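Notebook entry, structure prediction.
Reason for the run: the old model in the group folder had no record of what sequence produced it. Starting over properly, with the input documented here first.
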Amino acid sequence: MVRHNNQLPDNLPQLQNLIKRDPESYKEEFLQQYNHYKSTLEVFRLTPEKYNKSLDELVMFLAQVAQCFTTELVNYPQELIDILKSCNRILDPDMRMIFCKALILLRSKNLIDPTALLSLFFELLNCEDKSLRQFLRDHIINDIKNVNVKHKNMKVNTALQNFMFKELQNSSARAAKMAADIMIELYNKNIWNDAKTVNVIATGCFSRSNVKIMVACLKFFLGKDPDEKNSDDSDSDDDVPDLKKVLLANKFNKKSKKRDKELKKAKQLMVKTKKKKSKAPQFNFSALHLIYDPQDFAEKLFKQVEKNNDRFEVKLMSLDVVSRLIGIHNLLILNFYPYIQRFLQPHQREVTKLLQFVAQASHELVPPENLTPVLMTLANNFVTERNSSDVMAIGLNAIREMCSRCPLVMNEDLLQDLTMYKNYRERSVMMAARSLISLYRNVMPEMLHKKDRGRPTEATIALEPLKYGEVDVKDFVPGAETLLNASKNDDIEIDSENTEDDDDEWIDVSGSEDENDDASEDDGDDDDDDGDQNEEKGDENEVDEQKGGVKKRMKKQKRTKLDRKREKMQRLLRMKKVKKEEFTAEKKEKAALISVERLLTDEDFKKIDSALIKQQVTPHAAKRGIKRPFANEEKDELVKLGDIENIYKKRKHDKQARMESIEKGREDRVKFGYKDGRQNPLCSKTNREKKKTKAYQMVKHKIKTKVKRSFKDKQIALRNHLLKIKRMK
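New structure, fully documented this time:
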């Protein structure tokens, strides 16, 4: 190998390249540079505030070849660490950055323990150098990411997490803020997404030394989910119920407008189900679910809101986190509702967010008597005609979101008062009231007025309202009874004809009973009349006595008639109740039988989903009422602000709005007008095209020829033509 000794002392990059290829051959040159580094370092210690270019090059050179001479450079990393610890505030910024880069290079070669380097970098955060702080933050995140790139190194992660927890409690505001930012970034990058990291970040919500740390930790719990790898296969089109199988149930039936409406509603429900499956959750459910003691955490956070006089924005974030914890974990913090009730006024700043917090903090385990004052406050302050239509609509939307999570909070009188706004003159209020009606059709239709309950379907007939604290636990797959007829018929169809026949039988029985009652009453009247006619033949005293007795019997008979009507109504109600119980019990028995005896496949579940959708549009009995079906939508854990602020308004139809819409529609559109279809745009035009650009005086005589000529004009033209031909001959 050719040695270039005359160039190596001055050309460190070349020497570095040669040492990496053959360390033993160039050991003398390395030792020469190492001794030069020691002497330069001693000189630098005398004036650490000045930049030394020679030391800069030597430090990076030794860091590049450190893996080749580990025994000779065993103390080299510690020397750099000691310089940064002792002189970090007075060092030149460029020299400080060079020392940090050299240590990072040594860390990448596994020559420094990560915890030791991490502690040093957190000390350097106190330096007045913003670029250095950002550089160190990026390195710490990338270093921890590289440690866990193949598999999670729990030993190193535990040590680093303990160090981060100590730094979060550090008196230095910069170090604590950096520790919080690093842990949040690592969680969002799916590197430290365990429960320990979440609970360490949760302690930052109580930081009083630096409000920025508290705000950063609160924003972490209010943020969105990290981009995790979701199994798209489960949300594919294969899992969506097949619409064709729903339509096949009515393929051979008689066509009618009523059946077409039902099919149209089934299509709408199918599209809504497909959209719901394709949507991803938009909240940080994993962080909120990983808190060790959510009850204690929420109580401390709410106590901090009551005790401290923070800015209004910070209070809103704290209340948002508390409301999310209450709703997701079904916590009981009863003093939360009177506290937030004070701010429920239309003129309150950010009132829609406060309404969102109230709805989020409502769940079925909250005693209704604690939520009723909040509901009454909303109804009294928002849903009144002295407010604008937008305020009324927002109040009704907030009430609907509360009742969707805690239906028992609503009483029957208030509900019927609110449903009276379904015919309000403003469309926004009308639509909000109708959404409240559709909610209680799905949950507790008995609370609504009879005309607002809508047409009962097979889904509503089987609905059983739950009492406070009651949980609906099923030991079978709902809708599995539809698989009994799957082997006989490919169509997914619930045997509603049998139930309709049963209904007719009940109606016939009641009708016959009514006829018997009427007949017996008529017979009684005839008997009385006959008795009266016979008694008229007696003397006058007997007639008077008989008339008095007849009046008494008629009064008695009227009372019995009312009683009979009451008994008949009670009997009908009992029969309907028994019929409903028999209908639901039969379905449950069939579903339990199928769930126990069969292993359900994906195809079976698709059939069940299709049948459940059809049940929501299939009427249970031939009764009059509103024919609008309801969708049995699953409630989200968190309330969307758009659901409360959703206001239906008519579009503006003034000229300015129309012109804006027209101009917006013309964007990115081909210019209208005559389209020249010639291949060569430079060729000459036809006479017809040229005539369009000529002056009118030049072409007006030709326009007259197009007018239909009279018979005399035609004679004159023909004569002139014949004369012209004769002259030419």
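Summary: Residues 425 and 638 are 32 Å apart (CA to CA).
The old model has been moved to the deprecated folder.
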